[in-house]
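Hi everyone, sorry if this is the wrong subforum. Our group has a chain we'd like a structural model of before ordering constructs, and none of us has done structure prediction before. Sequence below.
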Amino acid sequence: LFVIMVYLIFVLIRELRYHRNSITRSSIQEGINKLTSGLCFYQDGGRVTLVNHRMLQLCHEIVGRDLQNAVLFWEILSSGQVSEGVTRLSEGSCPSFRLPNGTVWTFAYEDLNGIHQLTAAETTQIQAVTDELKEKNLQLTALNHRLRMYGENVDELTRSKERLETKARIHGELGQALLSTRRYLLDEDLEASGMLELWQRNIAMLRKEAQLMDEEQPMEMLMLKEI
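Answer:
Right subforum, don't worry. Here is the predicted structure as tokens:
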């Protein structure tokens, strides 16, 4: 009896050591179940051959039922209707979803020589950075719009200021011409040529001002400022 017990203990230890050091289906299943990402292998037609707990959990949360047909599951992930509370963030070859608990998961498909593989990786932090960049881009777009409007207002204010300065200078020139004309009328010894040139100059300035208000030509503004 003692010898039989020793032999059984030896056989048990050897079997345990064998299972620990060898790769079996149960060891593979145990290994992929420890993965934090989702993993699923299936054959043509959608029959699942190997899947871990994470992928089963994601399928139940996103689709609302157990993973029985992987082809149907991938079709729903790509463009189908998902469960209430799940937000689809993207479609196509790499669909991503935000689950009710706030985590974001991105799925991918790959054909491995007749064996189809589905993977799911948590991309919560990446999505948070993406959302932050989108928000900052919107803020920059709004800021650029305000700056553009501000620039247009500044240009208009600058043009208005220049027109006002020009009008003030013209009024000053006209006032000087009127005073000179008054002196000419009171003093007959003054020469008329200087008075005529002064009025020709003021008339030219008035014509340029009228044309500037109609056409707003920059060259005309420069010519006017040089008079």
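For your construct planning: The first strand starts at residue 38 and ends at 42. Residues 46 and 71 are 5 Å apart (CA to CA).
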